[in-house]
Amino acid sequence: MAKSLSGMGRNWNGTRLFIRSLQSKPKLNIPSQTQSTPHGNSFDLYTPEGKPVKTIVPVYGMGLLAEHDPRLNKFIQACLEMNTRVAVPHLPGLKSYLLEKSDREKLIDLIGHIHGQYQETISIIAFSAGASIALSAC
Within 10 A of 13 (CB to CB), how many other CB atoms are there? Predict the structure, then answer.
């Protein structure tokens, strides 16, 4: 019983640190590397300073700011502080307030590329209308 409670304590501490990171002011100068998959689909890759423990692909909702949304920047910063690699796809349909099949194909391509490159499980988190594209891609 004590073992499971200590495991819960570690999980709670990680959750608490993650939530605290989200509440801080966003650092707008987050370093990223714009990369492309072999099929030419571009994405921004954010890598933490330490060894990444996992990779997250956030799918933003409809909006002109898209991958440059300050709320997404805050989320990315919180992930980096938790040693999580983040790959943000460029989805022009969502940026234009459209649900396009091509965005789904770009997301599928990115997931395959990241999985092939790092050979690890990828977590996908989707916001608002981006959830429909993420669910159809999985």
Answer: 10
Where does 3-53 show beta strands of DSSP type E?
33-36, 42-46
| Tokens standing for residue 121 | 């499980």
CB 93 within 8 A of CB 100: yes
> Taken in order 59, 63, 66, 69, is the CA torsion positive or negative?
negative
Task: Tell me the C-alpha distance between 97 and 121, whole Å.
Answer: 30
DSSP 32: -
Give pLDDT tens digits for 70-122: 889 999 999 998 999 999 999 999 999 999 999 999 999 999 999 999 988 89
Give the end-to-end CA distance of the chain in Å, rounded to a whole number.
36
- Determine phi and psi for 88, rounding to 5 degrees: -105, 115
Q: What global pTM score does this model have? A: 0.77
